[in-house]
Amino acid sequence: METTEQLTASGFEDGLSATASFVWGPWLLIPLLFATGFVLTIRLRGVQFRKLFPALRLGLIDRSDEGGKGDISQYQALTTALAATVGVGNIVGVATAISIGGPGALFWMWITGLLGMASKYSEAFLGVRFRVTDGKGNMSGGPQRYLERGIKGPVGKFLAWFFAIAAVVASFGIGNMTQANAVSENLEKSFNVDPTVTGIVMFILIGAVLLGGIKAIGQVTAAFVPLMIAIYIIGGLAVLAINAEGIPEAITLIFTDAFTGTSAVGGFVGSGIMLALQLGAARGIFSNESGMGSAAIAAAAAKTTHPVRQGLVSMTQTFIDTIIVVTFTGLVIISSGVWSEGEDRAGTMTADAFTAALPGDWGGHIVTIAIVFFAFSTVLGWSYYGERCAQRIFGDYATVPYRMLFTCVVVVGATMELNVAWTFSDLANGLMALPNLVGLLLLSGLIARETKAYLDFDPKLTASATEVEKFLIDQKSPWR
């Protein structure tokens, strides 16, 4: 017979799960995310399609904006944001969406990503546009700043504080404990590493990086992120090469099932169009974080000569995360046929696909290493997000205590069962997105107006710092 404490805990979990399901359900966050992405795409005249290649060049080839003011390079800001978003969601999250919603869920993840690029551009633009210099001389920006500075009056202030509180909570959940837990579980399963050992090692490594602040995080992620993505994609290419015969059928399933639903097969119970759309959208947003506002915090630290330039660089993060990494995971799962094993196998589905294609234990080891890399980098990125928001709430002196507490919580995450933490983290993520999306819609006119003015002046993104400065003077821009 259950005790009163067990019944209370069970009731709390059920209530938390129901609240998270409502926030991320088809009546609140998902339509708001789609609507915001669509409105911004229209108002910005499809900037994510028109300027994708110049933006990729600026972020990945040029890498820095000579003469720009900030704490880290544009490339480091991009990799810091990528570090926080390319995580467990790119492996397990994709498998979950497909195992429940069918292959068509991947199509809706693509749509979410393409529309989300406009949202990611907009929040990064605002992050730089309304950033401030804190008491320690570092750049500070993001929704916790631009919602209050861009939207005057009590509404803007309420939205900014709501976001900041939710972001601090989320940083300890989805940005810390759940990631550390994923690392320890996979290392224990694949290499028999004790979770306590994993926790201690992560404590030392995370703490060492955080001592250096955003500059150290930027330097580590600049070297770390491209390597981890390359390893995963190379492994994915090998699996796809072996499963080449199944790729045409996989692509057909993705497009047809997105609009017709998926019949029951194997362990898969079948799904309708709405379920594929809901799961694809929810997991797509969970993976790339477009509309959540988190990436704007990293963008605000970038050395850039104009907010539009950093907005475009940050926009490529969603393209890399969803259109590249998520696509590789989805195609591997669908072309190998493991997607039909059902929801119960979602946690190991990607590893099963890799293991079935590659010799020996190589497949499972590649996925394990990818999860470790992705989760570790997510912890680094989210540590900065949480720190900036804690600073906004408690002041400049909150940064060191926050770093110390954040580092200690890594050990807790690595050594404990965290079922409730995942649900709580989902809810906190959703509560971050709500004020940010409202803010993006309210500020969409300013975003569109200033974006058009700059791109009319510098359509190829090749203007020098001197030329941009003259443009800002001629425009009488408040951002200088």
Please tell me the total number of domains: 1
| Total of DSSP H or I helical runs spanning 4+ residues | 21
Secondary-structure-derived class: mainly alpha
CATH topology: Hydantoin permease
**What is the radius of gyration computed over CA atoms, rounded to a whole number of angstroms?**
22 Å
Low-confidence runs (pLDDT<50, min 5 residues)?
Answer: none
Number of strands: 2
Separation of the first and last Cα atoms? 67 Å
The CATH architecture can be given as: Orthogonal Bundle
Task: Name the CATH class.
Answer: Mainly Alpha
Specify the overall morphology: globular
Approximately how much beta-strand content do the residues carry? under 5%
Q: What topology, given as strand order, has the largest sheet? A: 1-2
Helices and strands, in N-to-C order?
HHHHHHHEEHHHHHHHHHHHHHH
Q: Percent helix among the residues?
A: over 70%
| Biggest pleated sheet | 2 strands, antiparallel
Mean pLDDT: 88
